[in-house]
């Protein structure tokens, strides 16, 4: 049961000198005060300078929450409590925290969504606000999460995944556990509930699929970067590994790959029938999934517009509509390819997957002036 939260604020600010507490038993226990509107400080009565802990000081701080309660901060623990462990090692450190127990009222309303086996694009929920969500699947619900900027990662602790259709369902874990575990949370039945606790300013992208499409995946990777992206290593030596990319803000360009094995690229979501399978170096669409069937490889990519303006050509890729492989009636895509000044290049089209009324049009421009048009 998840009904109470308490807030733990870890303070590395300099606090008023307080005596370093004795921790001979190895554990210091904190029980909720009678007046939960008051803040519990540790150590007692400090405001500016935290006490300096000696070398090799070890202590566990246990926060107790009564049944049907959990705690909240930058840290959220499900009842009946959680622990913080301080270990200074060979370096002394200033340390202190405050605790505020706060009642968490069960929400009366939740946003409801549905995912199906036939969807070639995962349902993505760009978290804003703190309304809970309930996701229903045809078989079982698969949940993954994309990373956020590093300084916002702490807020993922406040995203609680519950295995079932309501707020008393068993807890699967937090958003941070899901991200750090490189895994997926899978419901036992058709429903999965997500509670959003505390500060929702992290705006992570929550992803949901029908487990029919995600069955057999051993490891999940994802990326969040601005312009320059770090290398992503995909290891499928112990089973299929998935690398998920959100192209919502800009397209990602695959610069190079090293390694061995088989790498499939899907426009959107992984589908067992492979109806939206592509092989791409210039990746389009709202969402992209790389599936490493075996072996391992390293991928370098960028989403910097400046990359298109260098003279190094000899590239190839596939351009697809964001809904490629789905039954959407309206599908279109517009792609712009830039060249440096005074550069000349030529292109060739290997194959085009067009239906009855579809067409491909290529327009060349020098600045704003149209120099050629082919359809």
Structural features, described:
- With 375 residues, this protein is mostly beta strands.
- It has three domains: 4-103, no CATH class; 111-214, Spermadhesin, CUB domain (Jelly Rolls), CATH 2.60.120; 219-305, Jelly Rolls.
- 3% of the residues lie in helices and 38% in strands.
- It has two helices and 26 strands.
- The strands form seven sheets. Strands 18, 19, 20, 21, 22, 23 and 24 form a seven-stranded mixed beta sheet that branches.
- β13 and β14 form a beta hairpin.
- The longest helix is centred in the middle third of the chain and has 6 residues, at 175-180.
- The protein is elongated.
- Residues 1-17, 67-73 and 280-285 have low confidence and may be disordered.
- Residues 21-62 form the CUB-like domain.
- Residues 114-197 form the DUF7592 domain.
- Keywords: Signal.
Which word captures the global form?
Answer: elongated
Radius of gyration: 26 Å
In DSSP terms (H or I, runs of 4 or more residues), the helix count works out at 2
Number of strands: 26
Task: Give the CATH topology of the largest domain.
Answer: Jelly Rolls
Q: Segments where pLDDT lies below 50 for 5+ residues? A: 1-17, 67-73, 280-285
Oligomer: single chain
Provide the residue-averaged pLDDT: 72
- The fraction of residues in strands falls at 35-45%
Structural class: mainly beta
Fourth-tier CATH superfamily name of the largest domain:
Spermadhesin, CUB domain
CATH architecture identity of the largest domain: Sandwich
Q: Tell me the count of domains.
A: 3
Q: How far do the termini sit from each other? A: 62 Å
CATH class identity of the largest domain = Mainly Beta
User: In sequence order, what are the helices and strands, one letter per element?
Assistant: EEEEEEEEEEEEEEHEEEHEEEEEEEEE
Binned, the helix content reads under 10%
| Main sheet specs | 7 strands, mixed
Domain DUF7592: 114-197
Keywords: Signal
Domain CUB-like: 21-62
Domain DUF7591: 213-303
